[in-house]
Specification:
The complex is a heterodimer of chains A (263) and B (167). With 263 residues, chain A is an all-alpha fold. Chain A contains eleven helices and no strands. Chain A has a single domain, classed as Ferritin, core subunit, four-helix bundle (Ferritin), CATH 1.20.1260.10.
Chain lengths: 263, 167
């Protein structure tokens, strides 16, 4: 295992800042993975059931690597399980889009596509992070995420450019979820601190690449790009929509009711 | 059945008998999901180092969330403890990330014989049905029964089959 050694004295973010930054990445993957897991046994076809479960598995695997690292940065003995199962919603720092309910298959795929397109950019940038450990995790994750993006983009085109019914449903989903995309692309103080230290990507620089990638697929899917979202949600600061608490209630029930349970 | 082809790291480590014994033992540690492949065929063992009575083994996971990774680590530990080569420490190595190009030639042949098409560097056009050899195949889904496999169907013999994904 290689530990990160960020030593440049003046601009190096504090351990607390790095802990929270890594949790943002970890929690986005964990929450999205948990949402996709809710589809297991319910997807429209067996192949799609397997695909969603596979993507969930990749995301939760990424989250485990990131959570384990966050726990090491924090240095208070919390491991990946403690961080996943024993924090409450205000201590989760995932982007708000990830926690939005699944809705129908089309809505799930819209959410997935918007986040896949973002995670591909984020992980590509993180592969060159000055934080060696993050760079390693990202270099692995980006290969998996490109598969996810091919899947969700492919479905978005099929549904958008499909029947009148499928088109209407994914357009509705896009209109409903678009307001959460501003958070992905608007840096706050922590994003800027991470970017300045070369740890994380500059979201300002990432924005045009994400917009172009998303725009190309939306055009092919004959979907109308919604008006720009004005309000940036603040999931990444721990301020969540009402949906996250319910999701965590289900996700965390077993380890909280039976601490240390194993099977 | 088992050929004596030594893997590249094994050849390099020829001067160290303990390490060589470890490499030999690892030939019989199988992937729990694809039991015809050893962990060496799979290319997940990055190094074996014997120092001061400790044997360190570096393992690269194939996919971040592959549940087989933990089983593989446990199996490797058990196999090496059984060989009595010292205290066994299994370490996770993330970088460079695992690639399907690390599958050994022997592993590719075993996959094909097991009914799983081996990964090809280029696009789906090259995939051949492992049952009848036809190239008239269609991709059903890029996500198959395990993270490392995609799901295909042969248009000639009509059989479904798995393809080991390129990553």
């Amino acid at each position: 295992m290689t530990a990160s050694t960020s030593t440049s004295a003046s601009s190096a973010p504090s351990a607390e800042a790095r802990f929270r930054y890594v949790l943002r990445l970890a929690d986005t993957s964990l929450v999205l993975g948990q949402r996709l897991g809710e589809w297991v046994g319910h997807a429209p076809a067996l192949e799609e059931d397997l695909a969603l479960a596979n993507i969930a598995l990749d995301l939760i695997g990424q989250a485990r690597l990131l959570l384990a690292y966050a726990g090491e940065i924090e240095g208070r003995g919390r491991d990946e399980d403690a961080l996943a199962f024993l924090r409450d919603a205000p201590e989760f720092y995932n982007v708000s889009l990830a926690e939005q309910p699944n809705g129908d298959f089309g809505r799930t795929l819209v959410r997935q596509f918007l986040l896949d397109a973002w995670q591909v950019e984020v992980y590509e940038a993180l592969s060159g992070s000055t934080d060696g450990r993050l760079a390693e995790i990202a270099a692995k994750a980006v290969k998996e995420t490109r598969y996810h993006l091919r899947f969700s983009a492919g479905w978005l085109v099929r549904l958008g450019d499909g029947t009148a019914e499928s088109h209407a449903r994914v357009q509705d989903a896009l209109d409903a979820l678009w307001r959460f995309t501003e958070e992905l692309l608007t840096p706050d103080a922590l994003d800027e601190e991470a970017a300045a230290a070369g740890i994380g990507p500059s979201l300002t620089a990432l924005r045009p690449r994400w917009e172009e990638r998303v725009g190309t697929v939306l055009a092919e899917a004959t979907l109308k790009r919604p008006a720009p979202a004005r309000y940036p949600w603040h999931g990444k600061r721990g301020v969540h929509t009402e949906h996250l608490g319910h999701m965590l209630g289900e996700m965390q029930h077993l380890p909280r009711a039976f601490p240390g349970a194993a099977w | 059945m088992v050929t004596e082809t030594l893997t590249e790291p094994l050849r390099r480590s020829g001067a160290y008998p303990i390490e060589e014994r470890a490499w030999r033992a690892l030939r019989f540690v199988m992937d729990p999901e694809i039991p015809v492949l050893s962990v060496l065929d799979l290319g997940v063992v990055r190094y074996v180092r014997s120092q001061e009575g400790r044997l360190r083994v570096g393992i690269t996971p194939t996919y971040s969330g592959c549940p087989a990774t933990e089983v593989i680590q446990r199996s490797i530990r058990e196999a090496l403890v059984h060989e009595e080569l010292g205290d066994v420490i299994v370490e996770t190595v993330l970088s460079p990330p695992w690639s399907s190009e690390w599958l050994s030639e022997e592993g590719r042949r075993k996959l094909q014989a097991f009914g799983i098409a081996a990964p090809k560097a280029r696009a789906a056009a090259n995939v051949a049905c492992p049952h009848c050899g036809s190239h008239e195949v269609e991709r059903v889904s890029e996500f198959g029964s395990t993270p490392c496999k995609a799901h295909y169907r042969c248009s000639d013999c009509l059989e479904p089959f798995d393809v080991f994904k390129c990553i």
